[in-house]
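Per-residue structure
===
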Amino acid sequence: MTMKKTFFAIVAAMALVSCAEQAKVPQLGLTEEQFGTAEYDGQQVKLYTIKNANGMVAQLTNQGAKLVSLYAPDKEGKMEDVVLGYPTAADYAKCDQRAGVGEPFFGATIGRYGNRLAGGMFVIDGDTTKVEINEMPGKSLHGGSKGYHSQMWTVKEQTENKVVFTLHDADGTMGYKGNVDVELTYEMCDCNGLKLTYSATTDAPTAINLTHHSFFNLDGEGAETVNDHVLMIPAKEITAVNRFLIPTGELMPVEGTAFDFNTPHAISDSIASDHLQMKIGGGYDHNWVLSSEPNEDGLRVAAEVKSLKSGRIMTVITTEPGVQFYGGNFLNNTQVGKSGKTYPRRSALCLETQHFPDSPNHENFPSTILRPGETYSHVCVYKFDVEK
């Protein structure tokens, strides 16, 4: 199957695959277990395992509604974990405590506002909201140190193929105004997609931008690089950033630059570019403005990434207007992962579907304001296929 064919095959079902080396894959089916012996905010951290009919498996934790593991088949049918993460809940907790200061947010649910807010502030109806500054100089990143990634979520429902998490985000947490109630469903679909469905309501006007922060390597967790992965992003523009990685408000055309992934190519083909935006980001760490057309359900292709080595192809599908492609520039071999290997620079990538960074401070960006009586909604699917 070619990249072009896969681009349009958004909801095509995948043929059943054999599960070679099945012993390495976690227990299948409806399971709930302690995630180590750690407690977090006085609550027991749990690990939930779900599967689909084809043998794909995901493991989730109520600590930050994180995706801990995701097992997908390669071209030989071999199941491997394709997301980075830590072996214990205690390891996640240590990193949560330093959010914004070297924390990679492995597999985390991000909120109340994903990505960056300039000055840690925004104005709604003339009323200024000031939130925690947790990234210098003067920025709020991913909701602050007590963002959704570091809160304990409640499991509302669990079946063999899905877990429904809920969170009450109280008025004043990290400086955000209004009580926000969030629901997030992780579902392992039989089309070999991990589907995330978010919804949220508020009792006061607020800014909200939820996203998912898994680090993917389609050659398996612990593989050394993603620079050889082939990437496609259907976008004509990015939101250009200043030297503090805050959007300037400019929508910069990608044509003829290192940011043009409309034609699929290896990340290594452009990673060494001397483009100013690449220098500012230390590589790829930008929001692409999606130009793909949504289908009747409002879903559009945000990205497609392929490993020539494993044959795995991951298509990212979303209702959101943007996707943040982060190339793992700040991984530095100090993070020890589930397999006992360290994670070197650019050994994984993130594709975070979202509204644009710092949107409340830019009138020309799609609005991220949620008001009482409205419901925030967001769907993201990470769909897996293979090229044999």
In short: The chain has three helices and 27 strands. Residues 4-23 have pLDDT under 50 and may be disordered. The CA atoms of residues 228 and 266 lie 5 Å apart. The longest strand covers residues 376-386.
